[in-house]
Amino acid sequence: MTVPVTIRIQEADFDIAAEIAAMTKGRTDIGAVVSFSGICRGADDGDDVAALTLEHYPGMAEDEIGRHAAEAIKRWPVTGLTIVHRVGRMLPGDNIVLVLAASAHRQAAFSAAEFLMDYLKANAPFWKREERADGTRWVEAHDRDDAAAARWGKD
C-alpha cells in the first residue's frame, strides 16, 4: 500500500483538527496520530518579537520536505504523513508548522514526527526574519537544531 503524504506550503492558517480528520477519514489501519504544531513566539532570547516573516524557495522546499517524508516512510511503519508549513508574516500566537504522523501504533508515529520536525528545523529551505522594537533581523541557524537532526544519522 502506498502511504498517503500531504505536503503544503501556504500563507493561510491551518486547522489542526481538520487536518487530522482529513488524514484519518475512512481509515481503519490508523491506531495513532502524533501531531506537532509550531507556534510563533512573542519573545526570543528574552527580547520581544512583534512578528516573524518566513520565506522559502518554492519547489525546492517541497522537494526537500518530500525527501525527508520518504525517508520517514522507509524508517518506520507509518500509514500517513501531513506536513503543512506556513510562509509570510505571522504574529505571536499564529501557527507556523504542522507535522502529523499516523501509524498503527504510537511509537512509529512519535518517531516519524520527531524525525521530520528535526529535519524541518535544521535543513528545510526556509528563512526567518524577526521584527523587534529595535528593527528586523534574520534568524541564524542554531547548533541545537543541527545536533537534533544529526542524531538520526545520514539519510
Automatic annotation (TrEMBL):
Top-rank lineage group of the source organism: Bacteria
GO BP annotations listed: Mo-molybdopterin cofactor biosynthetic process
Its EC number(s): 2.8.1.12
Pathway involvement of the protein, from the record: Cofactor biosynthesis; molybdopterin biosynthesis
InterPro entries membership: MoaE_sf, Mopterin_biosynth_MoaE
One example GO MF annotation: molybdopterin synthase activity
Keywords: Molybdenum cofactor biosynthesis
UniProt enzyme class: transferase
Family matches, as CDD domains: MoaE (cd00756)
Reactions accelerated catalytically: 2 [molybdopterin-synthase sulfur-carrier protein]-C-terminal-Gly-aminoethanethioate + cyclic pyranopterin phosphate + H2O = molybdopterin + 2 [molybdopterin-synthase sulfur-carrier protein]-C-terminal Gly-Gly + 2 H(+)
The protein's assembly and partners: Heterotetramer of 2 MoaD subunits and 2 MoaE subunits. Also stable as homodimer. The enzyme changes between these two forms during catalysis.
General function of this protein: Converts molybdopterin precursor Z into molybdopterin. This requires the incorporation of two sulfur atoms into precursor Z to generate a dithiolene group. The sulfur is provided by MoaD.
Family indicated by similarity: Belongs to the MoaE family.
PANTHER family referenced in this protein's UniProt entry, alphabetically: MOLYBDOPTERIN SYNTHASE RELATED
Identification of the protein by name: Molybdopterin synthase catalytic subunit
